[in-house]
Amino acid sequence: MTSRLKTAAAAMLLAATALTSSGASAVPLKNSTPAPEFGGIDKWLNSEPLSIGQLRGKVVLVDFWTYTCINCINTLPYVKDWNQKYKDQGLVVIGVHTPEYPFERNTDNVKTAIKRFNITYPVAQDNRYATWSAYNNQYWPAFYLIDKKGQVVYSHFGEGEYDKTEAQIRALLAQKE
User: What range(s) does the Thioredoxin domain occupy (predicted)?
Assistant: First the structure.
């Protein structure tokens, strides 16, 4: 599974590089891959621990972020809006806080940021980069959309193209299981 995810991620990255010069990229995957579990999470905030299996039947937006990244901060209004707009239709937003700097590993600092940014959706604190690595992620911010069957079907790296991401959310919510 890891090699398939790496291959898909590499293909997405190459396609994204060819399609955009803005530094942001949104790529629907031609070949979906099973979503990795939320492994090695140090602490869950705003929620009890969640698993991909528990979320079957839901559309899941996994948002890799860190609280001092300006690009991550700039995406938060969109992520929070999607959460509010679509949570009653079956969208589950999971923020995966993966620290860039040592002080970002402190749970109290993450809790303070969650409060400051008024984040109400679940946040998984991924201090050891276990979930980050399972997704072969390399960027802050990064969005991964998981369909109702538990497959990663879309990714977006960086800021921008919010309309494309929202269109993918709506399309996935409209799909039958």
Answer: 29-174
Distance (Å, whole) CA 13 – CA 7: 10
**Residue 98: how many other CB atoms lie within 10 Å:** 25
Q: Note the pLDDT tens digit of each residue in 1-44.
A: 444 444 444 434 333 333 333 445 555 656 789 999 999 999 99
Q: Which residues have C-beta within 8 Å of that of residue 177, sequence separation ≥ 6?
A: 57, 148, 149
CB atoms inside a 10 Å sphere around CB 174: 10
35 secondary structure, DSSP code: P
Q: Please state the domain extents for the chain.
A: 2-174
pTM listed for this prediction: 0.84
Residue 140 has pLDDT above 90, yes or no: yes
Q: How far apart are the C-alpha atoms of 30 and 151, rounded to whole Å? A: 12
- What CATH homologous superfamily does 2-174 map to? Glutaredoxin (3.40.30.10)
